[in-house]
Amino acid sequence: MKNNPRLQPWLELADELDEFASFMHAADLAPRRATRDGPGEFLDVGAETANRMRAIAKKRWTWFSCQRDRMQGEVRAKLHTFHRWVSEGFFYGSEGTEAWREMMDRIDRIERRLDALSAA
After folding, report:
1. % of the chain beyond a pLDDT of 90
2. How sure is the predictor about 5, in pLDDT bands with cuts at 50, 70 and 90?
3. Cα(111)–Cα(28) distance, rounded to whole angstroms?
4. Backbone φ and ψ of 95, nearest 5°
């Protein structure tokens, strides 16, 4: 994908979200949507957000600032969702485990990276 070089750090953030999603599934922390038939499909834990970021970056005739603002909004919305899930107890029973600490560290890294990109 040939993009504006200013978008490269944002695409790297999208890669980090993909890695986070893989970790969440491997650690069995990804929440599922409940159905009558039992556990349903997994909720998005970053992969769909990363795909939306890449789709935004592919739009050739969009100003960089518009692309940046849209990608920033996608990531901020996902981070807000994670904080809501934590406060609502979606990860009950995993608090204090190694996987929990790793999840929180990764969320913190993504937030710091987003803040740095947003300030640039």
Report:
1. 52
2. confident
3. 22
4. -60, 135
